[in-house]
Amino acid sequence: MGVRLLPVDVPVDPDRDEARRLLEDELDKARYRQQGQGEAETPEWLRAIYRWFENLIDSLSGQGSVPGWIVLLVIVVVAVIVVLFLVFGVPRLRARSRIRGSGDELFEADDHRDAAAMRRDADAAAQAGRFGEAIAERFRAIARSLHERTLVTTVPGSTAHDVARRAALPLPEHAEALGRAAVDFDAVRYLGDPGDRERYERMATLDAAVQHARPHLEPVATVASAEPFARVEP
C-alpha cells in the first residue's frame, strides 16, 4: 500500500492552533483512505483519537507551543493505526456485515413448528437428496427440542453457535458434537455447502442423543430475549 505516513512540514514547535491543524490534515487523509475502501463515515475510534490529541495539546500548550516531536509522534501513531485498520480491520468488518446482512439467525418469527415437524421436514429433504436443507432443518429440530425441554430458550436473533454454546451447560457431554453441528449448520446455510448424507446422519444421531440425554439441571439458558419461535428459510 502506497501510503505516506510522515508529514514533512511539521514545525519545530507548533502552537496550539498549528498542532490542531496538522492533526486535522492527517485525519482528513485518513478519511479519504477510508472512503477509498468504501467506508463513508469516520469511525468512533478515529474521532476518539482526535479528541485525545486535542486534550493533549490543551494540557501541554500552557506556554503557547507544543514540542514538535510530540506532534510528529502522535501523527505517526494515528497514521499507522489507520493503515493497519484499513488493511486488517475493514475486510473483516465487511465479511461480518455480509454474514449478518444475510440473516445469521437460526429462526424466523413466523415458524411455530415443533421439533417433531422439523424432523419430518429434515428426513423428507434428506430422502430427496437435499442434504444441505436436511442438515439445517435437523439442527433446528435439535434447537427446538432443547427449547421444548426448557434447557435452552431459542428466540428471534438466536444463532446456531448461541444454541450450541448454551446447550453445553446442561449437556456438557455433548458440547463438542453440538459445536461441530453448529459449524455444519453455518456451512450449509451461509457458505453454499451442499451437505452430504454422512453429515446429515451425524446430525440425526446427535439429535437422538440429545433427546435422551439426562441434563445437568441448571437455570434456563436464555438466547437473546424471550420471544416466540422463529425460522430462517434454507
Structural commentary:
- The structure is a single chain.
- This protein is mostly helical.
- It folds into two domains: about 15-100; about 115-220.
- Helices cover about 60% and strands about 0% of the residues.
- It has helices at about 15-35, 45-60, 70-100, 115-125, 130-150, 160-165, 175-190, 195-210, and strands at about 150-155, 220.
- A two-stranded parallel ribbon has the order 1-2.
- It starts with 15 loop residues before the first helix and ends in a 12-residue tail after the last strand.
Whole-number mean pLDDT = 72
Task: State which percent range the strand residues make up.
Answer: under 5%
Number of domains: 2
Q: Could you spell the SSE succession in H and E letters?
A: HHHHHEHHHE
Topology record:
Elements: H1 16-36, H2 44-60, H3 68-101, H4 115-127, H5 131-148, E1 152-153, H6 160-167, H7 175-190, H8 197-212, E2 221-222
What's the gist of this structure?
The chain is mainly α. It is 61% helix and 2% strand. It contains eight helices and two strands, in the order αααααβαααβ.
Throw out a few tags for this protein.
234 residues; mainly alpha; 2 strands; disordered N terminus; disordered C terminus
